[in-house]
Each structure stands twice: as structure tokens, then as C-alpha cells.
Amino acid sequence: MVSQITPEDVFFSHPSDPTSAKAPRAAQAAGGSVLNSNDGGRGPSQPQRMRLAPHQGACSQTFIRGNTVVQLRPPRHRIDVRVAAAARRVLGELVPTVPVLERTVPRPVSAAGMEPWLVWPASWGDGEIIPHEGDEGGTNDDRDRWLVYTMSRMPGQPLSVVLEQHHVNSPREYGGIGPDNTPTLDIENLVRSLARDLFARPIGQHVHRGQLGEGRRIPLGRIGSSFRERVVQLGEELPARFRPIVNEVEPALDHIEQLPWVVTHGDLCPQNILVDLVENNDSRSGDAGSERVTVVLRGIVDWAEGEWLPFGVGLYGLETLLTCRHCRGDDDKMVIDYRPDADALRKAFWDELNAMLPWLCNKKKRQAVEYARLLGILLWHGFAFDDGALNRVVNEGDPRDEEELAKLDLFLLGKSRDQKDEMQGKDAAKRRGEREGEAKESAQTERTGVKL
User: N or C: which terminus of the chain carries fewer CB neighbours within 10 A?
Assistant: First the structure.
């Protein structure tokens, strides 16, 4: 999303003069107050520098103020603090503190070239808080006021940034485009940490399906309350090659619902996984190219789409971590494929998870978890996000859906788009051959009839 803020509501000084007193004086002259971490941002004080976060999400606008994150969200992308609180309770310091809804502000508009020195204007005062219950947001609300949340700032950098740098700098044999003597990126530690902390740990505070829903202590979210209807819709509207998978999952829904229900991240992708890098040398080899950089998990952010779901549904996120992107030679189109070490990383993940959850050795329970994993892939990549609408099944031929269809091909059928194109080409050639054979046979029959 383009960085946005209401120009009339922002006062700033030139970035080359960050200590300038003009900004607070200008704010006070206009009736504004400055945001200060010592008073919670609610009263006039000395200015506290607040800047746009370097990495922005698609559904919010994020600022950093010291050790605090200030995030603006339209009502349709509000945070369910009950889920955020559960995630914090279960995962501890791996997730931010529970977001606090501070106030609402007028809907931001584009402000290109906005300076990073911001103060909290009086017009951002205590606006009417939009109620949560029964309010699904929407364009009218989005035009009126946005929600302002504060939460703790997490350490680390997004895994997406690390992977992009790795692609540029790493040896070709590991999927990069750099020279062969550069360090390799080791994410096995990260994969094991996710198995242990993000997936196994919530089992300790799971609930059963009967404890969820209307009138219960724990609500059902958008996916948890509708995945049966969504599976039916997928079976009717997904491209035909995916429907056998849907037909396998649908009869297993009862078994999936009997699994423990755990707090589940709703957008587990490299952008929302924060990591640090630790350099280490591989003692098994003296070559310079044996240097490795280990990726260490520091946090999981953006729980706005999170909810309670059956254990295993959240495993959709593992698949994305095992992929890489590369250019297809013939037209320079980006293609999604599994990493060269994907099988080894998958084994490491399941080794760790099995060690933490011995009940996965039960064949029936493991099968239910596998169906839950397939369900998660179908739900997360079979429906277009469409700014949070989540009601349209991805469609072949729609350019907006190309990436999700490519992921479904890879995650469900084990074929990259290159392989799919090749197979489609072979199938088309086979069908042409069959049609040509039928035409020749028909012509031969006609000639034989004429002779008779």
C-alpha cells in the first residue's frame, strides 16, 4: 500500500534539521499536540520522532516511534484483540504486545514525499471508536475514519528481505545468482523453530470445537465459521485439475474438526516472519564457499487475520517458506518453484514437530492433520484476497490470480508453472493427435463406403 497520511493533519520539519523547534511550535500554533512516548501520545510534550516503517503491509500503514509501533488500519482490516491476546499468551515475546486501539483518525490520503518528522495533531483527538460487534467495515467506514493501534516494536528484519538479498548474493547452486564463493543461507534452524514454537506450542492451550462460537468465550472467525461452505464452493468453481483434492478433503472435514483448535496465524508468509542472521563457518570444509549464515526466528507479526482453527490448517504457511522464485529463460517471467533443499527442510520440520507432539505418530490423527494441511492450502490460495473480501474463487485466465494458481499447482500437484505448461503442451499435442487420428479414420471409413 502507498504510504499515506492526511497532509492537513501532519506538521514536519526538514529532515536535515531533526532538532528544529519549528515543528512543535508550528503544531502548537495550529492547535496540535505532539506524540511523545512518555505520555502515551495523549498530551502536549516535547516532540518524539516518528517515521514510516521501512516495510509496509498491504492492509495498513505503519509508523515507528522508539520502541512502539503505531499502525493505521481501515475498519475492514481491524485487529481482533482477542486473537492477538491469545497469540501473545501462547507465544510470549515471539509476538508483539496486545494492540491497543488508541483512537480513530480521518481516512488518510496520499502524501508523496512526506517527511519523516511527524507530530500528533489535535485533529487526531479522541474520535468516536467504531464498535467491533456486528461491524464488518466496508467502503463507507473506510472513507470516514481509520483505526489507530499501538503495540510493541519487534526485533529482527522480515524474512522476505533476507531471502531477496540471498537470491541476489548467494551461490547459484542454492538458487541465487551470486558467485559460488559467497555464504549460503541456512534456514533449517528457522524451520525447526517454527515447528517447535509456532505450531507445537499452541497445542498446550488448545480448545475443542464445542468451546467455540456464538455465546462462547472464544469466537469463531471468518474461516473457522465457514470452511464447510467454502470447500463446497471450491469444489464447484476451482479449475478441474484441483477438484480431486477438494473431493478428498471434503469427506474428512468431520475428522479435521475433531483436531485441537489452536490460535492460528492468518497470513504466515516471509513478510510477517522476523529473523536475525548469525554467521558461522562449516567446520566440515575449509573452502571459503562453506561459510553459512544461520537464520534465527525473532518474531511473528501481523495477527489481524488470525483466528482459532483446527491444528494443521496453518501448515499452509510452511509451503511458502520452502519456495523460491526464478526467471524463466524464454520470457524472463518469474516462476515459483521449491527450493533445492525443500525436501530436507520439510523432513527437519516434521522431525521436530513429531518430537514435540508424539500423538502425531497415530496414523489416523496424522492423516487428519494432512487433510487439515490440504484444507489450509485450498482456503488460503483458492480464494482471492480482494482487499479482505475472501469470497471469490481464483479463476484461470484472470491475471490477478496467476500467482495463487501457480502456488496451487506447486503445493497440491507438485508441479511448477514450467512443468504445468509443458504438461499442458503435451496434453494439447496428444489431443491434436487423437483428433487427427479420428479424422483419418473417419475419412478412411468414408472412402471404404464409397468403394463398396
Answer: C
Domain ranges of the chain: 7-152, 157-415
- Beta strand 184-186 with 100-106: parallel, antiparallel or unpaired? unpaired
Answer yes or no: are the C-beta atoms of 98 and 151 closer than 8 Å: yes
**Residue in the structure block whose three cell numbers are 456464538:** 214
Architecture of domain 157-415: Alpha-Beta Complex (3.90)
pTM (two decimals): 0.76
Give the mean model confidence (pLDDT) for residues 148-152. Answer: 93
| CA angle at 81 for the pair 196 and 231, rounded to the nearest 5° | 70
Cell of residue 341, nine digits:
533443499
Lowest mean pLDDT among 182-186, 255-259, 342-346, 433-437: 433-437
